[in-house]
From TrEMBL:
Species per Swiss-Prot/TrEMBL record: Rhizophagus irregularis (strain DAOM 181602 / DAOM 197198 / MUCL 43194)
Superkingdom, taxonomy of origin: Eukaryota
Molecular function in Gene Ontology: metal ion binding; oxidoreductase activity
Record family assignment: Belongs to the iron/ascorbate-dependent oxidoreductase family.
Keywords: Iron, Membrane, Metal-binding, Oxidoreductase, Transmembrane, Transmembrane helix
PROSITE patterns named in the record: FE2OG_OXY
Residues of the Fe2OG dioxygenase domain: 181-287
Regions that span the bilayer: 337-357
Short name of one Pfam family: 2OG-FeII_Oxy
Name used for this protein in its record: Fe2OG dioxygenase domain-containing protein
Length: 381
């Protein structure tokens, strides 16, 4: 059921089909660059369409979601939560809730499918999927369906990266090699709030609390034209309607950072106060673990040497940083990368700081200095 109390927002729909051809025309390349630039600087959210998306069987994917989430709780809960690297496995009702809101959803996380019995990985963000005994219960085709969708949506992400290259006039593809091995896909089931009225909870209910995504790109497939995703735009919450033959793309905090905040990482949430269950498949796409992506563009007040300005989510940001306005930040840092760190402790400290601030206080993106080191967290709306 649509959320009648909220107005739908009219977001750009960008056709990337030309990038799938061997020799796209200059006119198409210019069009895509211009449309991406406008979408990212005005909203931070847009739809994409292309031939590759049309090849995705959404009905089959939704059936796979329904098969899993309809399993008895004891079976789902038996799937271990793998926290090495990014979390993989089953997340039960309220598993990601903060202190203020009960998130009425379930999730199943998985990522790149490695060869059988692989135990040694190249970095701390890689790791095996946790299938448990699901293949025996749901069948081999169920697992194949999920892996096929992962591979296809990664290809869509790479098309978006190509479009960003055009808009920003910078090479990004080289910084994303291997990014598929640390990216993460989550299947979500959002329940109508009335279905959990028997759960004792003093907190207000919501599908997903207001937050920004701290990564590079997020691709959201709202299955079966379901509603519920909203962005905070022009000081109000707006519905992001599901559109046939398209997928929603969100800019993440990391992409916003490397563009000095010119590309917006939008505050968004999910509500589901209707009568129907809602399913979505969300890919959190990341660049290479050791990518060194230069900050893009000049600061308004000082010269910007791109050869010495590279930024990461995970490595220490020890140089000076100060706000220039609510949407843009300034950074003085010589050499940083996406995943390279000095120790495991630093990664988990940063990770839990981000999660803690997001879930507890529903903050927007900001910088938190700790012992002279600046970590990326969330700042209050």
């Amino acid at each position: 059921m649509p959320n009648s109390s909220y107005k739908p927002i009219s977001l750009p729909v960008i056709d990337l089909s030309a990038l799938e051809t061997p020799s796209p025309s200059k006119a198409d390349l210019n069009r895509i660059a211009n449309e991406i630039q406008i979408a990212c600087t005005k909203y931070g959210v847009f739809y994409i369409t292309c031939s590759s998306f049309n090849a995705i069987d959404q009905t089959l994917l939704k059936e796979a979601c329904q098969q899993f989430f309809s399993l008895p709780s004891n079976i789902k809960s038996s799937i271990p939560i793998k926290s090495g690297g990014f979390t993989r496995g089953y997340i039960g009702m309220g598993g990601e809730s903060g202190s203020q809101l009960l998130e009425v959803k379930e999730a199943f996380s998985y990522g790149y499918e490695w060869e059988n019995n692989k135990t040694k990985f190249e970095n701390l963000l890689q790791g095996p999927n946790e299938w448990g005994n699901l293949e025996n219960i749901l069948g081999r085709e169920w697992r194949i369906t999920l892996n096929q969708y992962y591979n296809k949506v990664i290809l869509l992400s790479e098309l978006v990266v190509r479009s960003l290259e055009l808009a920003l006039n910078i090479e990004l593809k080289q910084h994303c090699v291997g990014g598929e091995t640390i990216s993460l896909l989550r299947l979500f089931k959002y329940l109508p709030y009335k279905e959990i009225d028997n759960i004792k909870c003093e907190n207000e209910r919501i599908g997903s609390s207001p937050h920004t995504d701290w990564g590079f790109l997020t691709l959201v497939l709202q299955l079966d034209n379901s509603q519920g995703l909203q962005i905070f735009y022009d000081n109000q919450w707006c519905d992001v309607p599901s559109k046939p033959a398209s997928i929603v793309v969100n800019c993440g905090d990391y992409l916003s950072l490397i563009t000095h905040g010119k590309y917006i990482s939008p505050l968004h949430r999910v509500i589901n106060d209707g009568t129907n269950e809602r399913y979505s498949a969300v890919l959190f796409y990341y660049p290479s673990y050791d990518a060194k992506i230069p900050l893009i563009g000049n600061n308004e007040e000082e010269e910007f040497d791109l050869s010495k300005k590279e930024l990461s989510i995970f490595k220490d940001q020890t140089a000076h940083c100060k706000e220039s306005n609510a949407k843009a930040r300034r950074y003085d840092k010589k050499d940083t990368c996406f995943g390279e760190v000095g120790s495991i402790i630093k990664i988990f400290l940063i990770y839990f700081l981000i999660i803690y601030w997001k879930l507890k206080n529903h903050y927007l993106f900001s910088i938190l200095p700790i012992n002279g080191i600046k970590f990326f967290v969330i700042e209050k709306q």
